[in-house]
Design goal:
The strands form three sheets. The protein has a nine-stranded mixed beta sheet, covered by helices on one side. Strands 4-18-17-16-7-6-15 form a seven-stranded antiparallel beta sheet. A two-stranded antiparallel sheet has the order 2-3. The chain has helices at residues 56-66, 68-77, 81-89, 91-104, 108-121, 125-132, 134-141, 172-175, 237-244, 250-257, 323-332, 341-348, and strands at residues 13-15, 21-23, 27-29, 40-42, 49-54, 152-158, 161-170, 179-187, 190-199, 209-212, 216-222, 274-280, 286-292, 295-300, 304-308, 369-377, 382-386, 398-401. The chain is globular, with a radius of gyration of 20 Å. The protein starts with 12 loop residues before the first strand and ends with a strand. It is built from twelve helices and 18 strands.
Length: 403
């Protein structure tokens, strides 16, 4: 593995709003009771929100230090951890990790954030980076139990409506160990990046859902292509998701992942498949982007509604068939077509399939659970996050205003 000199932590401004949170009954860490600012409200002990301002290293350090107990709990209780470390010790594993690290090291901003997180948690950089490659490693090992098909999106685009409703699903470990990060990145005294995003313990924000100061919204769906893109410069999907969270416009985002027809410029590539639903308040556009070994495929949401679960829908890459996606899709088309917020949330809250419900809660067929639900309303410029089943009478846990 490549070694790095870790810099010292600089000044960091962290806003924390409470003291301790029990995780699985015996794990405690500091948590935020809500993210600050006049355009945000809400709090939750299970899904705390940390507000932090500083350099990229500072932000990573604050996240690592604040949620250290959650991160360590996942690292020691995740059934896949032993396989990750066995893979990292093998010759083939070391070769893959060096390739992914070389690709990531082109982006100093990400490297700084990863170093900060490692220092904050008290882990080595290599350990933190290994966890960021778990999706790719699961595919290489063909370890289907580790391939957790997660997340559901319902998107509506009409003249009077621009919505993306998203269920964030995970294995049971993610239910009590995830968090929100509201970050302002400061460079030379200037805020160059600001975002609010869901994050899994020990993983960079972006591999879930979030939004940034430019009015871009993001919601990811796990998909599992049968092969990886191996160009020598392809990034782990967690790194790609964090980079895309920084885009200042939809055009910029697309230009980074799609080569111009008259250009040979190098674009960002991701090793493993994943799906990203993107919205933009300025343009009102909603789009689904699929990354796979076959390249990048985009599909704009047309007049009406669209959905995305956990299979590639417009990319030609070979993929694993997901029974949950098949069941959720079948359920979707037995329900009234959504035309508004109520219709969207009714779908996301549906539990009618006893084995593979849309709102997931662990069944005999799968252990996956829905950690939270987010609704992006581009025209009203609002974000509502629910940490329980989003029923019509349920108020959101967090509410934010989109730029």
């Amino acid at each position: 593995m490549m070694a790095f000199r870790l810099s010292l932590c600089g000044s960091v401004a962290v806003v924390l709003f409470s003291l301790l949170l029990a995780v699985h009954g015996d794990q405690n860490d500091s948590k935020a009771a809500g993210c600050g600012g006049p355009q945000a409200q809400g709090s939750d002990s299970r899904l705390p929100c940390l507000a932090v301002k500083g350099s990229r290293y500072d932000v990573g350090y604050a996240v690592g230090k604040t949620f250290r107990d959650r991160i360590m709990y996942v690292n020691t209780h995740d059934d896949f951890s032993a396989k990750l470390h066995t893979f990292a010790k093998s010759a083939a594993g070391q070769a893959h990790l060096k390739t992914w690290l070389r690709a990531t090291s082109r982006f100093q901003n990400v490297m700084d954030e990863l170093r900060g997180m490692a220092d904050g948690v008290g882990m080595t950089f290599e350990e933190v980076f290994l966890r960021h490659c778990s999706h790719e490693i699961a595919i290489l090992l063909r370890d289907q139990p580790a391939m957790m098909p997660s997340c559901s999106d319902i998107l509506i685009q009409t003249p009077n409506m621009r919505l993306d409703g998203h269920n964030e699903d995970s294995n049971p470990l993610g239910y009590n160990t995830s968090y929100l990060v509201q970050a302002e990145i400061v460079e030379n005294g200037v805020v160059t990046e600001a975002f609010t995003a869901f994050a899994y313990a020990g993983i960079l924000p972006g591999m879930g859902y979030g939004f940034n100061k430019h009015g871009l919204t993001y919601a990811c769906n796990a998909v599992y292509g049968k092969s990886l893109l191996d160009t020598g410069m392809a990034l782990p999907r967690t790194v790609m998701a964090r980079l895309l969270l920084s885009a200042s416009s939809l055009d910029e985002l697309l230009s980074n992942i799609q080569p111009a027809t008259d250009s040979s410029s190098v674009v960002w590539q991701t090793a493993a498949s994943f799906s990203l639903n993107v919205g933009h308040t300025t343009t009102g556009h909603l789009m689904n982007i699929e990354f796979s070994a076959a390249g990048v495929s985009t599909e704009t949401v047309e007049n009406g509604f669209s959905h995305h679960f956990n299979m590639l829908s417009h990319s030609p890459a070979l993929q694993y068939i997901d029974q949950s996606t098949l069941h959720r899709t079948s359920t979707l088309f037995t329900l009234p077509a959504p035309h508004d917020i109520n219709g969207t949330m009714a779908i996301l809250a549906d539990t009618s399939d006893p084995l593979y419900p849309i709102f997931r809660r662990g069944t005999q067929a799968e252990s996956t659970v829905t950690t939270s639900t987010v609704l992006f309303d581009l025209l009203q410029r609002s974000v509502d996050i629910y940490t329980s089943r989003p029923l019509p009478t349920s108020p959101p846990t967090y509410s934010f205003t989109l730029p």
